[in-house]
Amino acid sequence: MRTETTAEGFRITVSNTGVIVAPHEVPMLFEPFRRLTDRVGSARGSGLGLSIVRAVARVHDGDADARARPQGGLDVHATLPTCHTPGRKRTGHQEQRAHS
Fold first, then answer.
1. What pTM was computed for the model?
2. 100 in helix, strand or coil?
3. Cα–Cα distance between 33 and 83 in angstroms, integer?
4. The pLDDT value given to residue 46
């Protein structure tokens, strides 16, 4: 785990090892109840973890994403603004969700 301060706020990165994940599969891992089909050695888990991480980050005007590591596993990044401002103008994904 690594933390850093950026111009936008705070960034938390969690890296893990595991099976090699194709880059095109990464976005679907943020969908509720989605897991990789070729996961090694474990049938545990419901596929909610990353969708919860993203939902919590977005409620706080942040976001979460991931990148596949070439040697296997993921680098998961969660970003949060320095200050959560209620009523702040929403941008990007937040604006789309607010109007849905």
1. 0.73
2. coil
3. 31
4. 80
